[in-house]
Design brief:
By secondary structure, this protein is an alpha+beta fold. The chain is 36% helix and 30% strand. It has a single domain (20-193), classed as 2-Layer Sandwich (Alpha-Beta Plaits). It is globular.
Length: 194
Amino acid sequence: MQTGCRLLISTMPMELQNAPQVALVCALTTNGERVYREAIDLLCARFGSIVDQSEPYALDEGGYYASEMGGDLMKQLLCFTERVAPDTLYAHKMASIDMEYALAETRDGKRCRSANIDPGLLSIESLVLSTTKRVGHRISIGEGIWAETTLLYQKRAYRPLPWTYLDYQRDDVQRFLLRRRQWLRAQQWSTALG
């Protein structure tokens, strides 16, 4: 019996693997052009330059946000030039919350968001988003912040999961993510080559 335990232990990896750096993406939802420009300025000041962005689209499924932010919401995915370590998602979400507060407006005597900023991590395997909303399939990554795998890369596309919001299943979003995946693969190859 002890021999079996020794064998099991001797075949276990003794060194942990480092996760490869991933693309920092932000889903930016705003209620107007002025707020959009201000949000871009704040995001670039904190996260660096933007290497690519999806086409902006109307957030037709924006009922949750419309009650706070108003109608005619536009959404866009942004990808930043510098890749990040996956364990930085919590810090990026906390920074985005500070930005949302800075962009908030007073309506009817209360502070309301005019922008929603959801940082996420795009890897060649998946898109993981951060949120303040706790639901059973999400994992806590720090006080009050959860992460979810929103899309998985399988069979040449980022595939939705049962909880994936409809707008992440759009063809234009898919094209954006696949472009960024090619960029990530090229970055990983150049890092591996030295």
